[in-house]
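Write out the 3D structure for:
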Amino acid sequence: MNEPILNAQMLAKIGLDSSSRVLVVGLGATGLSVARFLSDKGIQLAVVDTRVKPPGLTELREFLPDVAVFLGGFDKLAFDRATHLIVSPGVSLETPMIRQAMLSGTPVFGDLDLFVCMAEAPIIGITGSNGKSTVTTLLGLMAEEDQRKVKVGGNLGIPMMDLLDEEADLYVLELSSFQLERSELLRADAATVLNISPDHMDRYTDLNAYADAKKRIFKGDGLMVLNADDPMVESMAEPNRRCVRFSVKENAQAEYRLNEDGWLSRGDQPILPSSEVRIKGRHNIANALAAVALGDAVGLTDAAMIKAMREFSGLDHRMQWVADTDGISYINDSKATNVGACVAALEGVSDPVVLIAGGDGKGADFSELVGAVTGKVRAVVLMGRDAPLLEQVLGPVVKTVRVDNMAQAVATARTLAHSGDIVLLAPACASLDQYKDYQERGRMFAEAVRGMLK
């Protein structure tokens, strides 16, 4: 095995050396990236996963054939032999064997702390229930326009350990609550919590516990970028800490705001008319303001940020236009995997709307949707595991129709919509009850819509 090539910071903060035995808990893209990194540094490792054929298994066996892999459950012997656990975001820290390891004093952390120890360039951290992928991508494009050597990833796209680059001068990371809850070392140069709405309630005891995990992005003394329009985010402000705020509300007391003339503004300085921001919807104006605030924190030029805002058309499955036919517009927001994202999607489009929703609600309270659909949504087409719960909540205020699959949903929505309406896929639920992921769900929606045009 190669001699370990660890910097002093890693040795001091995580305690890894040539005698360490690291158990990587959970494979997938994150676990694979961690395993490759540890192997490159000469650290002994093994991998454990409850799945028989987890994603990344073929690649692991191809590139690291000598690494021990325990599949189909959590092997007690593997946990007993480990001096450290690196737990992938998809694995709950409340899993009994992990909890037992923590109680026995075994260091348990995630890839974020491993990354922080190795990264030498400034880090910008972005989290929130909704919009974090959009802000992360937009900020990365702003930095590229400013000729920065920026690396973008984390929860979005490239796993963190694969981002490490000695020549990078900026890291822009999307961070999930799962990544943040197992981090002690993150000290971002600037960070934001974009918003808080119920999500992952199957993993957290309540909304406050979820928000507390998100708030960990603000550890340290870096700039806090806060959403002044979200009370839970605003409450995260710390005294004697550098804070700036963004808002899309009229007469807001925020450094970054939408002024009375409809311009994105920095204080009294207009930056760009909101009509020239290519991504649409009021929530995306808020996302753009957050990106500008973070860009200012690392000295990006206005010219670079304005160019990116004018050119960035958004991410797939996030308020993505699919087609217009018979006077009806079809929009794919399959990434709206929670209630807050669905509400934001509805607020970002004109009415009337025929909404397609449903899937795995992850224990969320759907009552917030009542106000969002009342008076704006003509009908709701429901599918998936939690369609009955959604129907129970929404049935008293709007017409609801239950269907079995996406093809039926699109066909039904077409019959319910009138010329001038929008058919919006914004499920308010995760997709795993029927689909591989939200991308597959969005593709099925787009295919069904385009099938009507043939």
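The chain is about 35% helix and 20% strand.
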